[in-house]
Amino acid sequence: MIARVDTPSPGGSPRWLPPVTQLQVGALALVIVGGVYMASYFPQRPPLALPIALLAASVTMSAIGAVMLARVRDFAWDTFLLVGRWALLAYVIQAGMIEYAFVHNHARGAPLVVVTLMLVMFAITIPTVIAFTVARYEVVQPVQSHT
Amino acid sequence: MTDEAHVRSAVAGGLAEGPPRAAIQVVPLRGLPVVGAILVFLIVAIAGNWRWALDLFHVAGGGLWTAIDLFVGLVVGPILGRLSIPARAEFSARFMPKMVLIMPTLVVMTLAAGFQLAIDLGNLEPSSPNHGWLVASFAIVGVMSVIALGVLEPANIAVLFEMRKPLPDGEVIAKLMKRFVYTAGILGLMQVGTLVIMTRVATQ
After folding, report:
1. What angle do CA A17, A21, A22 make, to 5 degrees?
2. Residue B105 is part of which domain span?
3. Cα B31 from chain centroid?
4. Is the ipTM of this complex over 0.95?
5. In chain A, domain spans
6. Nearest CB to A133; choose among B4, B42, B158
């Protein structure tokens, strides 16, 4: 499951990177489907089986993407962390606005917990995609191997 | 070797021959107080259930969101595609930072105020004749969110970072700008669907 992307390397040739964008956008899509499903029932209490299944699938996809990304060598981690940090702040504020709208309208108990966890995924996946997209176009020096 | 690769790429893309470039600010700091003020006003409007303010945020925000997406995708995009790469880069350097602030603010304004209006007006109740239409609009907005947040926004930020490099890669900028403009156009067309639903909901 490897995606070809035209990330520059010091030699100017394309590099191979894991499909982090596809996995994180897929994880985002799953929580958005779950969120739309729950919002369509609001202010009534929605059945939670489908949203919880979608949330679990989203967490799994995102975690796989994170593990694959963590194993990449010669990646512009400084840029990734710089962009990711600020994007995370922006999307935590957006997720907070959505959470506020639900809490203000008396969402309580298990549905609120599920919505909150979906918003956590929302706030994590988007900054990851943004930071990965920026960092993959950075030119990095390869890590020297001592073996 | 690294520098050589950069120079080759930038010259191939035409940027090395362009005019001197101004420093690029990814997030225009002068705009942040305006965004902060809008968000605070939005929170107060939701807390107080101010119908006029919620209408203002939802209608004005949604109208601007749609108009900007359509204008960028269908008017600016084709013009941009015919410009030289240095001209595209020059335009992008001034245009994209503004979009970083404007679009997320419009999206939050429109969606948060719209959700509150739907609850206040009872349109989300299953017995409401508008319930089905609203769920349809949620679905459209859901698809739009995935495209906007997963494709458009990362392309926007990546262009800005590429522009900040001493020798930006013209091909990377052109590729990312094309992605930005196409997705803006697709989002604008989907927004028209939302407008049809919203006008129907408002008049039912």
Report:
1. 105
2. 2-203
3. 15
4. no
5. 3-7+17-135
6. B158
Q: How many structural domains does chain B have?
A: 1
Compute CA B70 distance to the chain's CA centroid, rounded to the nearest angstrom: 11
Closest-CA residue of chain A to B160: A134
- Which segments of B72-169 does DSSP mark as H helices, in order? 77-81, 85-120, 131-147, 153-164
Along the 147 residues of chain A, how does pLDDT read in single tens digits?
444 445 555 444 456 789 999 999 999 999 999 998 988 888 788 899 999 999 999 999 999 999 999 998 888 898 899 889 888 988 898 899 888 988 888 888 899 999 999 999 999 999 999 999 889 888 776 655 554
Q: Which amino acid is at B195?
A: L
- Asked if omega into A46 is within 30° of 0 (cis), the reply is no
Contact B104 A90 (CB under 8 A): yes
Name residue, tokens 């997320």: B104
Give the global pTM: 0.80
Distance from the Cα of A1 to chain B's closest Cα (Å) equals 19
CB contact under 8 A, A137 and B124: no
